[in-house]
Each structure stands twice: as C-alpha cells, then as structure tokens.
Design goal:
Blueprint (H helix, E strand, L loop, with lengths): L1 H21 L1 H9 L8 H21 L8 E4 L7 E7 L2 E7 L10 H8 L19 H4 L3 H17 L4 H16 L7 H17 L6 H14 L40
Antiparallel strand pairs: 1-2, 2-3
Length: about 260
C-alpha cells in the first residue's frame, strides 16, 4: 500500500513538472493576472488627466476617489483618437485631436464629476485671485514656489472657482517652460485638468486668462506629443500621475516626503 501511495506521489510530481514545462500553469496564471490600467504612453497621459480631474472633484465634493481609470485607445491612428475610460461601473469616452492635452475633450468628464450631487447643475464659486497676473506668469524659481503655496491655499478654500483653476494653469505653464522637456508631461496633464474643470464650472467657456493658459498649453504640448503606439516608458511605471491626495490640493507636484509649501 505504501509503495502504491509513493508511486502516486511521484507520478503527481512528474505531471506537475510536465505542466510547468509545457507552460500550462503559466498560461493559467496569466489569465488571472490583473489587466494593466494602460499599455501605451498616450493611454497613460489620458489616465493622468482623468485622474487629476477626478481628484479635484473628490476634494471639492468630499468623496473618495477609489479606483483608477482603465484607459484604452479604441481608435489608434484615427482622427480624432478615441479613448475609453472605465472605472468601476462607469464608462466614459474621450475623443482628442492630434494631441491628448486638449481641455475641451475632457469637459464632459469634468462636468460629470463636478456636478452638484446626482443632478446636472454645477455650482461655480466666484472667488478670484486678487494678485497681479505678472506675479504668476513672470515668477522665477523661488517665486513659483511662493505662488504655488499661495494659489494652492486659495484653491483649497475655493475648489469650485473657475478663475482660480485658470490661474493654476498659468502657474503650471510658467513652471513647465522652465523645465526640461522630459519633466513636462505631468505638468501639461495638470494644466489640461485645471482648464477642463474651469470650462465645466463656467458653462464650457474660459475667461481671457483661461484662453491665454490654453494657448500656452498648445505651444508647450506641440513639442511633447508622444508616438501614438509608443509603449509605456519606464517613467510611467508607477501608475497614473494624479492631482494628489483628495485631502489637499497642490498645484505643482511636490517632491516625495515634502510637506505643503
């Protein structure tokens, strides 16, 4: 009897090795592996913009952001490109022109998350920045840090102010033009999110400052467009770049471990 049991065990081990060599187990494991939230650089950028909009809304309306968006380009090479954004039971479609940093393309998404409750109405806070515009547009490195802290505090107090989101976009434009091109995409995603939210809050339109910010975004984005099918680069391996923790607002990304400016 013992010999029979031993023989059965040896046979089972042999089958296991055979399955492993044939790749059967690895194939089964791959079926159970979670699907990546994006697989190309363009999809990552769309995910980053949508994630930033979601986190702005989460701060404004005091809800948890929850799951990230799964983004897929369902019309690669098409004009316009079409992306699906899936999150829980929600499914959104975003169509973008030649480059992904196009605030108008994300306004419907922003309206959905910035809406008052379950209704279609969106309340706008009339708060504005009383500081001179030059203090934001012409600030040097130290001035950008100062303005980041000041405007971040204003936005924390008035997250539904379209005017403040437009100022935030202008500050990001100033910071982006001073950084190497490799460091700009995250800032352009944040610019796009702020301007999409500003449009959503202000009935689809921008003020003169918002239009200025959008022109600067177009210029900066024109130098950055990734290849349509480019695989996700190493710099995107950490997951979607989002606005920040819903418990606070920071316009510019903060270095790891640093506190609010």
């Amino acid at each position: 009897m013992k010999r029979f049991v031993l023989a059965a065990v040896i046979a089972a081990v042999g089958c296991t090795v055979a399955f492993a060599k044939s790749g059967t187990f690895s194939n089964l494991a791959s079926l159970n592996a979670p699907e990546p939230v994006y697989i190309t650089e363009q999809e990552h950028l769309v995910s980053a913009i949508a994630g930033s909009i979601l986190n702005i809304a989460a701060f404004a309306d005091h809800f948890e952001t929850g799951d990230a968006f799964h983004v897929r380009n369902v019309q690669p090479g098409g004009k316009p490109a079409k992306f699906t954004l899936a999150r829980r039971a929600e499914l959104f479609t975003v169509e973008v022109p030649g480059q992904v940093w196009a605030p108008r393309s994300y306004v419907r998404l922003a309206r959905s998350f910035m809406a008052d409750g379950a209704g279609l109405s969106i309340s706008e806070d009339p708060a504005v920045d009383r500081a001179d515009l030059a203090s934001v547009l012409d600030a040097g490195a130290e001035g950008i840090r100062t303005q980041n802290g000041r405007l971040s505090r204003l936005l924390a107090e008035h997250p539904r102010s379209a005017a403040l989101h437009e100022r935030a976009a202008l500050l990001l434009a100033n910071a982006a033009k001073r950084r190497p091109e490799v460091d700009r995409p995250q800032l352009l995603c944040r610019m796009t999110a702020h301007l999409a939210v500003a449009r959503a809050l202000h009935q689809g339109a921008l003020s003169a400052e918002g239009e200025q910010a959008e022109r600067l975004l177009t210029v900066l984005a024109g130098r950055q467009e990734p290849a349509t099918g480019a695989p996700v680069g190493r710099q995107w391996a950490d997951g979607p770049a989002v606005f920040g923790e819903p418990s606070r607002i920071e316009i510019l990304p903060l270095p790891a471990g640093s506190d609010r400016p």
